[in-house]
């Protein structure tokens, strides 16, 4: 089959890790006889430097006209040292999510057995953890009206949600739970926030259509604690934009490295796949960054295309790289392997080039 994929490598280590994901996809294309047509475009700080715009129209048009988007990472330290700069890399990603209507962000958390000691959390606590965060991605405080006064002594960010924005992601969360352990946990701050109270009401209503799924609610402060005390008890965590963002970085600690966590962002028509990590600017160009989050994002893209066997092959290749310890230094401090070597191992495994697998 033929698929057209927009590749937005972005900033920092984005281009290096996306390259490994492309290698994995090319290997899949050759083994399973598919045609993946990659088209590159600018986003983030790189796009600001070249065009003045973090999401050039050309990039948006490309994304609207492809089967899926593969994104690396966006952001640059220089913007985080100066918040007076009005045009920022993050605006490119947020606008892209909004324009493509990507309201559901799916972030699976499952530690690999050989890495149970790579986490600072105790092995007994994290083993057998397996949950997915469903993070709302186009609403909430990220997209509400922002104001500041002229004196620079006042600022506001509005948090808004409508019934429909909550219901559509809730349906997807319940449907996912039905295929898993039949449990949805909503994370909110309903003791304080009106939007959270609306979330509770709407999710309860949606839940009536999924009687086999147990529904519970946690306040976000408590959830932050429960995630590291007893992560096993979660199946699907459903949350609004900001809470989902924060909890997913916290949850990455369970796996041993944020460099392992992939995500799928889905809308009614479009889909984008990206690691949950940032641009790790210090490691840029150093062959140091972990490419697995990007490779796994590509695997999620294959699932979205309906190519489950192919996706499973990528998952298997990643498992083997971990089993044989062909991993970057975030997972094994004395590792001799870099971004490229891990990417080579994965693509060679997919290609069945056994002679190239042992380093
Ligand atoms: C993420 C990132 C983004 C977010 C930033 C870069 C805007 O942290 O995808 O988790 O907050 O959504
Ligand atoms: Mn984040």
TrEMBL record:
Metal-binding is among the record's keywords: yes
Which PROSITE patterns does the record associate with it?
IDH_IMDH
Residue span(s) of domain Isopropylmalate dehydrogenase-like: 4-346
Q: Which reaction does it catalyse?
A: (2R,3S)-3-isopropylmalate + NAD(+) = 4-methyl-2-oxopentanoate + CO2 + NADH
Cofactor requirement: Mg(2+); Mn(2+)
InterPro entries linked to this entry: IsoCit/isopropylmalate_DH_CS, IsoPropMal-DH-like_dom, Isopropylmalate_DH
List the GO cellular component terms.
cytosol
Organism superkingdom = Bacteria
Keywords of this entry: Amino-acid biosynthesis, Branched-chain amino acid biosynthesis, Leucine biosynthesis, Magnesium, Manganese, Metal-binding, NAD, Oxidoreductase
E.C. code: 1.1.1.85
Alphabetically, the GO molecular function entries are: 3-isopropylmalate dehydrogenase activity; magnesium ion binding; NAD binding
Cofactor annotation remark: Binds 1 Mg(2+) or Mn(2+) ion per subunit.
**An example of a Gene Ontology BP annotation on this entry?**
L-leucine biosynthetic process
Q: Under which main EC class is this enzyme filed?
A: oxidoreductase
Subunit structure, briefly? Homodimer.
According to its UniProt record, which protein family does this protein belong to?
Answer: Belongs to the isocitrate and isopropylmalate dehydrogenases family. LeuB type 1 subfamily.
Role, per record = Catalyzes the oxidation of 3-carboxy-2-hydroxy-4-methylpentanoate (3-isopropylmalate) to 3-carboxy-4-methyl-2-oxopentanoate. The product decarboxylates to 4-methyl-2 oxopentanoate.
Q: What is this protein called?
A: 3-isopropylmalate dehydrogenase
């Amino acid at each position: 089959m033929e698929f057209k994929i927009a590749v937005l490598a972005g900033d920092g280590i984005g281009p290096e890790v996306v390259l490994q994901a492309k290698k994995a996809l090319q290997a899949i294309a050759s083994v399973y006889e598919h045609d993946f047509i990659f088209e590159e475009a600018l986003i983030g700080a790189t796009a600001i430097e070249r065009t003045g715009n973090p999401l050039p129209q050309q990039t948006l048009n490309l994304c609207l006209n492809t089967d899926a988007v593969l994104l690396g990472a966006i952001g640059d330290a220089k913007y985080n040292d100066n918040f007076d700069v009005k045009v920022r890399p993050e605006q490119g990603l947020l606008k892209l999510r909004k324009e493509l209507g990507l309201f559901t962000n799916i972030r699976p958390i499952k530690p690999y057995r050989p890495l149970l000691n790579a986490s600072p959390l105790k092995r007994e606590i994290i083993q057998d953890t397996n949950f997915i965060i469903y993070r709302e991605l186009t609403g909430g405080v990220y997209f509400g009206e922002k104001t500041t006064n002229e004196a620079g002594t006042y600022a506001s960010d509005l948090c808004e949600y409508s019934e429909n924005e909550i219901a559509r992601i809730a349906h997807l969360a319940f449907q996912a739970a039905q295929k898993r352990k039949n449990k949805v946990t909503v994370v909110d701050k309903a003791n304080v926030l009106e939007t959270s109270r609306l979330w509770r009401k709407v999710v309860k209503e949606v839940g009536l259509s999924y009687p086999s799924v147990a529904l519970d609610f946690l306040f976000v402060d408590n959830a932050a604690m429960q995630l590291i005390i007893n992560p096993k008890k979660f199946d699907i965590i459903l949350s609004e934009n900001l809470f989902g963002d924060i909890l997913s970085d916290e949850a990455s600690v369970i796996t041993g490295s944020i460099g392992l966590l992939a995500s799928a962002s889905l809308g009614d028509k479009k889909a984008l796949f990206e690691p949950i990590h940032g641009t790790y600017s210090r490691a840029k160009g150093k062959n140091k960054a972990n490419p697995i989050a990007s490779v796994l994002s590509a695997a999620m893209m294959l699932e979205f295309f309906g190519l489950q066997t192919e996706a499973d092959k990528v998952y298997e290749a990643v498992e083997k790289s971990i089993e044989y310890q062909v991993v970057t230094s975030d997972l094994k401090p004395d590792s001799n392997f870099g971004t490229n070597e891990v990417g080579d191992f994965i693509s060679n495994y997919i290609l069945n080039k056994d002679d190239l697998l042992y380093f």
